[in-house]
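Weekly modeling sync, notes
Attendees: S.R. (lead), two postdocs, one rotation student

Agenda item 3: backlog of single-chain predictions. S.R. asked that every request posted to the team notebook include the full sequence so nobody has to chase files. The rotation student volunteered to paste the first one in as an example of the format we agreed on. Action items at the bottom.

Example entry:
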Amino acid sequence: MLETDETEKLIAERLSEARRRTGRTLSEVAPAVGVSVTHLSRLERGDRQPSIGVLIQLARTYGTSVGQLVGEEPEATCHVFRQGATTPIEGPDGRYRYVPLSGPPGPSVMEAIRLELSSRSRTGRAAQHPGEEWLFVHTGDVRLEVASETFDLAAGDAARFDAQQPHRIHNAGSNTATVFVVSVASPSGQGGWHQ
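Predicted structure, as returned to the notebook:
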């Protein structure tokens, strides 16, 4: 059995590692969790122990479980996502929602999401990142902008493109559009879906 000091040190290391895997800074995570940057830094150094409330918020923010953050659950070898079991994340201004479908953030080269765009809405500013992106229109009609080109896509259509080109998705219809998006990192950089 681990002594208390060793357990606290391991929890601190797991908190720091979980944040780094998401590619976020202390100043990005702290407000989302409701703590100061200084407090979060102390948690990651093991100078303070997190409350259960903070652990729950950190687990949600990092897309993992409290058990994994404190070392009570092993890393999963397969992530299964049940319909309705994953809470959608609101995009800015409520224009769209997305649901991560590829597991907790980590060193993976692939990220998959389900994107739900309300009528006549669009994703935020044009995104650009290393790698490739593939999307599949499940329901609705969307307009995909990649660099200076525009593509009108209907349910059942798919597109693949270089994600280093500025890209954005618009809902071109009057009903909610559902689009599945897969980002794959290039060998030289990280992929990732951006708001």
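Discussion: group reviewed the output briefly. The chain has two domains: 4-69, 89-184.
Action items: rotation student to repeat for the remaining queue; S.R. to check formatting next week.
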